[in-house]
């Protein structure tokens, strides 16, 4: 989305829309086997961690060690939600 220049660059805008559709498709698929109360927070958490990693890898963004700690805690929370959901 960042590379779409506020949705002014057609190729990146179309890529962003395609990514959103794929992402929602995964959420729809997840809700077929999991309750929404589990699927949505896991989906959101994966998106948050993914956005952080994309920023670091593609845009050379830097985050502090303290931020890394919270990213790790977020991953632990996502895994904990999934593992304790009984599904």
Structure description:
The protein is mostly helical and 87 residues long. The chain has one domain (2-83). It contains three helices and no strands. The longest helix has 24 residues, at 10-33. The model has no long low-confidence stretch (mean pLDDT 92).
List the uncertain runs.
Answer: none
Put simply, the count of helices is: 3
- Cα(first) to Cα(last) distance is 33 Å
**CA-based shape:** flat
Number of domains: 1
Indicate the percent of residues in helices.
over 70%
What about the largest sheet? none
Element order, helices and strands? HHH
Rg from Cα? 15 Å
The fraction of residues in strands falls at under 5%
Based on secondary structure, the structural category is mainly alpha
- By DSSP, the count of extended strands is 0
Overall pLDDT confidence:
92
Transmembrane segments: 12-31, 38-59, 65-81
InterPro entries: EmrE-like, Small_drug/metabolite_transptr, Small_multidrug_res
Membrane topology: Multi-pass membrane protein
Protein name: QacE family quaternary ammonium compound efflux SMR transporter
Features:
87 residues; mainly alpha; 77% helix; 0% strand
SSE map:
Elements: H1 10-33, H2 36-59, H3 65-83
Helix pairs in contact: 1-2, 2-3
Question: Quick recap of the structure?
Answer:
The chain is an all-alpha fold and 87 residues long. It has helices at residues 10-33, 36-59, 65-83.
